[in-house]
Design goal:
It is an enzyme of class 1 (oxidoreductase). The strands form 7 sheets. Strands 6-4-7-8 form a 4-stranded mixed sheet, with helices on one face. It contains 25 helices and 17 strands. It is an alpha+beta fold. The chain folds into 4 domains: 91 residues, Glutaredoxin; 103 residues, Glutaredoxin (3-Layer(aba) Sandwich), CATH 3.40.30.10; 235 residues, Four Helix Bundle (Hemerythrin (Met), subunit A); 114 residues, no CATH class. Helices cover 43% and strands 10% of the residues. α9 packs across α12. It binds flavin-adenine dinucleotide and 2-acetamido-2-deoxy-beta-D-glucopyranose (NAG) (6 copies).
């Protein structure tokens, strides 16, 4: 009913929430966005209070607005992403003095300021990035906002008219970025394209630059002591069979084992999962045989429920040419610390691999792998919030998937959405920051620019990249464990013929007897061959589902235990805004018949039932407005957004550097 307007809303969300298309709300420190649906009875009070008469409308609340302010009503605003982003920047710049202390320094910088900064900061070792641009360009200001949450970097914009500096550095292209640090002096930042998204991505990856609150990744993170498994240097352009086999072992022998009796939906899910593994798992022959055997066994089961022990017996029936290794060895999914990555990483890898194999095999049902994943995750995946999020994404538009191409891209784009949501979270391994994947250095041709300079994916190149990256031929068998070479009888022969590489990799050979005697669902056995246990953050081998610590809960506990909540953290906790977005964006996705056409760039989050909750929290937020500052409401009959700018936090470093560059 409001398709056009909806597209406009979608655009707004992209801009503010997705930022460069590579990150979650990077502008959050400066700008908050809220949406209110004034067609909803529950919101009436607030809509009356702000005297909203027409939809859509946009309100802007500058910093230090009084709590009874109704904001500045903005008329005739642009309905596209870029326009709204620019509008927000203009509004931020329009602050009269005194500007809130944490306001980002969006103004232009003179040669003298740069020089005096360099003079004063000789002893500092952080990076200064200078965006050279034309007067009317927004690139510099957008990059400044993108980098707001990062430390050890400061971004300033210098206009082309600043001839002294431009000539000194021999700057010939506008925009372009030069980075100064003690070692490099000024050097041009190498990027794929001279555009905001690529600048932000490259700057965020400079040595020393980290998201505020994240520890700087230390090289010593990889130095393992003797009781821990050694770090395996691996090639980031490869997918490792060792990760896939470890995923199978952990999922079938540990995760599924938490169900003593498997029946109903769980049984259907298990059958679907095993069937897809049997058909598409591009494994070593014995593993494929084992999967086939267990699939055949499952198909014969006509009962409405089976015991895990029966399943396990079928799974663990070993012959010389049919067995599933009982080892967990993460390679591409290694984390720098043991609480990071591992199993969840390997599950993504597994399903991307399976879906590519299904596409290559031209299976009849393009949704087959997605459905298997959805049901497996729904019934068994130990991280329950993950399962809920995934189910919400599946409900949104998975049924629009009608071809293999769309299926592959659907999983890729949903995975990126999860990456965007989790970027900067505590579960993120500082050595493996969540990025929109594949990043420009992994697949340059996957990225392009729209005519307005915004980032866009080249879908067909991305598809080609995925097909190669996750193809069976491209899988690496390096670091596969020797400990699961053929059982006893074959052992000697196998040892004699085992490739040297595997022995050099220093894998220990586990005694076959031990291996056979271990009951796999026993906690000890699952880890006996795995010096590094499989891990979801905080989760090891739990026997019962109720015991499983989910990622979110764990993170919160961990967080609270580790550090007293700062004001910003508390803000984050009560932060009401994303929930409203969820509703909005879900509806948008539903409106989007193809689901994918527009959806790939957008980052909707799952629908959250507690929609009304946030409005009340928002008013709490208002009365707590020692924090806040600018809010804009954007209202629409069904879909509404409001923007709120919060300069609630003084980033110390930023402040200091701001002083240095008056
Ligand atoms: C179904 C599912 C839902 C999850 N939901 C949540 C959740 O709600 N909350 C939570 O905290 N954690 C969730 N997780 C875990 C989280 O997504 C990560 O798996 C975990 O944080 C480990 O991250 P990672 O850095 O190893 O990279 P992962 O995101 O696990 O990615 C693994 C590898 O896949 C490749 N890759 C990355 N992005 C893409 C892409 N878009 N397309 C193709 N390949 C890609 C990269 O090589 C990467 O190293 C979920 C996991 C799964 C399997
Ligand atoms: C505004 O703040 C004052 C005191 O700070 C409070 O008494 C009043 O109720 C607030 N008004 C609203 C609308 O929250
Ligand atoms: C400046 O750049 C131009 C072209 O990029 C090059 O020809 C010239 O030598 C450069 N001058 C200096 C001083 O580096
Ligand atoms: C850095 O570059 C400037 C201008 O190009 C030059 O004058 C200065 O000597 C350089 N400093 C170092 C340490 O290389
Ligand atoms: C080695 O690592 C283990 C497991 O992380 C830890 O318990 C142990 O204290 C470490 N030992 C040393 C000497 O660091
Ligand atoms: C990583 O693998 C690619 C092939 O996918 C290869 O071209 C590259 O040289 C490898 N890099 C290293 C460091 O081994
Ligand atoms: C990829 O898509 C672009 C347009 O989106 C098209 O111009 C190009 O020919 C396509 N390339 C391939 C290999 O299909």
């Amino acid at each position: 009913m409001c398709g056009v307007a909806a597209a406009a809303v979608r655009a707004v969300l992209c801009c503010v929430l997705v930022g460069s298309g590579a990150v979650r709300a990077e502008w959050k420190l400066a700008v908050h966005l809220a949406a209110i649906d004034c067609a909803n009875e529950n919101n009436r009070e607030v809509c009356i209070r702000f005297a909203i008469t027409g939809y859509p409308s946009l309100r802007f609340f500058p910093a230090f607005s009084s709590n009874d302010s109704t904001g500045e009503n903005i008329r005739g605003f642009s309905r596209d992403v870029t326009g709204l982003r620019h509008l927000i920047i203009d509004k931020l710049e329009s602050h009269k003095n005194p500007a809130p202390p944490a306001c980002p320094p969006l103004e232009t910088t003179s040669t003298q300021e740069i020089d005096s900064y360099l003079e004063e900061s000789r002893e500092h070792n952080h990076n200064l990035a200078v965006v050279f641009e034309e007067d009317n360009s927004y690139v510099g200001r957008e990059v400044i906002l993108d980098m707001l949450q990062y430390v050890n970097i400061m971004v300033r914009r210098v206009l082309r008219s600043e001839e002294e500096l431009v000539n000194r550095l021999n700057v010939t292209e506008f925009p372009s970025v030069y980075v100064y640090n003690k070692q490099s002096n000024f050097t041009r930042l190498p990027v794929l394209r001279d555009a905001r998204a690529f600048y932000s991505y490259a700057l965020q990856r400079l040595p020393g630059v980290v998201r505020e609150g994240k520890p700087y990744p230390e090289v010593t993170d990889f130095v393992r002591n003797q009781t821990e498994e050694q770090w395996i240097p691996f090639n980031k352009t490869r997918v490792y069979m060792s990760d896939l086999e470890s995923a199978l072992h952990y999922s079938l022998r540990v995760e599924v084992a938490s169900h003593t009796v498997i029946k109903g939906e769980a049984l259907t899910a298990l059958k679907g999962y095993i069937s897809v593994l049997d058909k598409y798992f591009p494994g070593r022959p014995p593993v494929k045989n084992a999967l086939k055997a267990v699939n055949n066994w499952l198909k014969e089961q006509k009962k409405t429920s089976i015991m895990y022990s029966e399943f396990s017996a079928a799974l663990n029936t070993k012959t010389t040419d049919s067995y599933l290794p009982e080892v967990v060895r993460w390679v591409g999914c290694q984390g720098s610390k043991k609480q990071y990555r591992g199993y969840p990483c390997s599950m993504w890898t597994l399903f991307h691999t399976l879906i590519i194999q299904a596409a290559e095999a031209g299976s009849k049902d393009p949704q087959e792998v997605l459905q298997a994943m959805r049901h497996y995750v729904g019934s068994f995946f130990g991280c329950r919030p993950c399962a809920d999020h995934f189910e919400a994404m599946a409900q949104e538009n998975m049924d629009h998937v009608t071809t293999h191409t769309v299926a592959v891209l659907w999983l890729w784009s949903r995975h990126n959405r999860v990456n965007a949501r989790l970027a900067g979270e505590l579960s993120e391994d500082p050595h493996f920051p969540k990025v929109q994947w594949p990043p420009p250095d992994l697949c340059p041709s996957c990225h392009t620019l729209k005519s307005n300079g915004d980032h866009a994916w080249v879908q067909n190149k991305t598809l080609a990249f995925l097909r190669n990256y996750y193809s069976a031929q491209h899988l690496s068998n390096d670091f596969l464990s020797v400990s699961v070479e053929p059982p006893v009888i074959e052992r000697r022969k196998a040892r004699e013929t085992a490739p040297n590489r595997e022995q050099e990799a220093g894998q220990e050979v586990v005694d076959e007897e031990d291996e056979l005697n271990e009951a796999p669902q026993d906690e000890k056995s699952a880890s006996y061959a795995s010096p590094r246990k499989p891990s979801i953050v905080g989760l090891r081998h739990h026997q019962f589902r109720e015991d499983i610590v989910d990622l979110d809960a764990f993170i919160i506990q961990h967080y609270k235990a580790k550090a007293p909540l700062s004001r910003r953290d508390m803000e984050d906790e009560v932060e009401p805004l994303p929930q409203s977005m969820r509703r909005t964006r879900r509806d948008l996705a539903a409106l989007d018949a193809k689901g994918l056409a527009l959806g790939l760039e957008v980052e909707p989050e799952p629908y959250d039932q507690s929609r009304t909750h946030w409005m009340s929290v928002l008013s709490v937020g208002f009365s707590r407005l020692d924090v806040s500052l600018c809010v804009a409401f954007y209202l629409l009959s069904v879909l509404c957004i409001a923007t709120m700018c919060l300069y609630f936090r003084v980033k110390r470093r930023q402040r200091r550097t701001k002083l240095a560059l008056p």
